[in-house]
Amino acid sequence: MTGKELQEKLTWKFADISKRYPEDVEKADRFCSGYKDFLNRGKTERECVSETVKLLEAAGYRPLDIHREYQAGDKVYEINRGKSVIATTFGTRPLEEGIRMNGAHIDSPRLDLKPNPVFEKNGIAYFKTHYYGGIRKYQWVTIPLSMHGIVYLEDGTKVEICLGEKEGEPVFCMTDLLPHLSAEQNGRKLSEGIKGEELNVIIGSLPYEDSEEIKEAVKLKALVLLHEYYGITEKDFLRAEIELVPTYKAVDIGLDRSLIGAYGQDDRVCAYTALQAEIDVKAPVYTTMTVLADKEEIGSTGNTGLDSDFVLHYVEKLAAVMKVDSRDVLRNSLCLSSDVNAAYDPTFASVYEDRNSCYVNKGCVLTKYTGSRGKSGSNDASAETMAKVIRIMDEAGVCWQTGELGAVDAGGGGTIAKFVAAMDVDVVDLGVPILSMHSPFELSSKLDVYHTYRAFKAFYEAE
């Protein structure tokens, strides 16, 4: 055997999608048109759930009814408190042989209003915010922001808020120092260039008209306008969940339009691809379960995050419907923890280890372990789990790669995988490589997005 033949046999190199499947460039562009629409319509976890249910209902899904009998091919879903949702297509094999699970999250880094947010200082009215998830605070100032959320009025009326998304609506922003006056600020560490208590969002500058004897007349004017828009008072903010997110829409990036730039791609890119795969599978061998969860960016806490029992309870309901033991179902299940990974960025190469990084346009990324440094907080998928998933990808002709979240000791992060594993389920991370992750404007490759969808569909359809 020649050296070249030995090299082909014994070495491995991840493929460039456009070279292996040149026809997928156009397919990926078409697929990502729907993805961009999904991003624009669902900028919060509640909005994502609402859009997801619309898509599920249109595809024939109905709310899970534990008193009904279901057959292979039947499609059901369940909403958890308006912030997470699970969808299922029943398979041809008995449920006790396991479920093909796919879990993504639909919350993203953002700014939340504090419970008592409205204040005035020197003739300007502001919202006080508390950032949610891991952000680089300096990236969020001087960009246009829209306001999304819900508030319950004193009489119990629920009011939905979305302001700043439509053409002609007012938007909001935070200020930063001009370079001429930033000598002291320039001396701060980058992480403290903007401090948490400096994330104050401007909401007005005009005083209430009859303001001669009124203290904080600009604040009052802002409250009057909020009351005109939504009927809310200052006290109502205590019964509210209001988020501030970038106003801009998802767009194509580059002369070749090969990338997507948008807010919230971590992790709505995996949520959308998983959802479309769930919808498109018609007669799976194994029952499917697509979980779109909340709170991953702050540790999957609360009763809408994966570090709770809502997924376990859903599996128990399925088991009860099919009259099987939920423990058998879980132990025989296989799950993809569908979350993004940090794509190799040549501009900042020093924080990556190039042999074990993921790259744009090479496909979905299998992440054997996340965590930080000594794999702290990691699931660390077994060899058996990796072998099962790789076989599925290879047999379906999906372009995939492996990757770590940066070089050892450079940092790290976590996903929902360890919470799924805690239910006695085999799980590994699989998702899309992202550039500028956790920024207000993240980048993904259309080809990677499309092959992630292909990976999820193959996962659901495999025997």
In short:
By secondary structure, this protein is an alpha/beta fold.
Describe the structure.
The chain is an alpha/beta fold and 463 residues long. It folds into two domains: 10-108 and 263-461, Zn peptidases (Aminopeptidase); 110-246, Aminopeptidase i, Domain 2. It contains twelve helices and 22 strands. The protein has a nine-stranded mixed beta sheet with strand order 1-2-3-13-4-14-20-16-18, with helices on both faces. Strands 8-7-10-5-6-9 form a six-stranded antiparallel beta sheet. The protein has a five-stranded mixed beta sheet with strand order 11-12-22-21-15. Helix 7 (265-280) packs across helix 12 (446-461) and helix 10 crosses helix 12. The longest helix has 18 residues, at 24-41. The chain starts with a helix and ends with a helix.
The CATH class of the largest domain is identified as: Alpha Beta
DSSP summary, beta strand count? 22
Helix content: 25-40%
Number of discrete domains: 2
Q: Count of helical segments?
A: 12
> In percent terms, what proportion of residues is strand?
15-25%
Q: Return the structural class.
A: alpha/beta
CATH architecture name of the largest domain: 3-Layer(aba) Sandwich
List the main descriptive attributes of the protein structure presented here.
single chain, 463 residues, alpha/beta, Aminopeptidase, Aminopeptidase i, Domain 2, nine-stranded mixed beta sheet, six-stranded antiparallel beta sheet, 24% strand, globular
